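Sample pair:
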Amino acid sequence: MTLDVSRREMPHSTDKSPRLAPGQRLTDGFPVLTYGGVPKIDLATWQFRIFGLVEDEVTLNWEQFMALPQSKSHSDIHCVTTWSRYDNDWEGVRIADMLSLVQVKPEAKHVMFHAYGGYTTNVPLDELLYNDALLAHTHDGAPLPLEHGGPLRGVVPHLYFWKSAKWVRGIELMAEERPGFWEMYGYHIHGDPWKEERYS
């Protein structure tokens, strides 16, 4: 299956759409919310794996990842705990570009992010092909701090921020939707802020 990786506009990006999702409050800060400890990650041994429903798995080291075409995006954050932060500048690799490195099987419809520390979260495959969906290593012009998911985190800005997994180390392509860590503990399986899909 050849993925359509043409640039797609994010939902809720029209001038008529509200910028602040319902039930949210604006903050100038960048709160740190983490379950458990912050993993220790050595870039010398760091790896990123694309696996599951692909013809051939791909594993990249940090140098190989950084040699991929780099993209920038500008987006807002909406956290399920009700804070929102406007005007975040991200730099990294578009998820659509990452997925173009593998031959995705036709039955693949969902993705599971896997992170150092054991965290997982699920997202529909189609929703990772928007132009603002990145694997980001830079935030607001500086390397992403460890407490915010550095060296690499997913950025899926049209969903609640728990879907933008910290410390990402892999993408698994799946046929069926499967709940990730927080989804198994009662968070919504999808997580659209404009529909207030906070909890199941």
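The chain has a mean pLDDT of 92.
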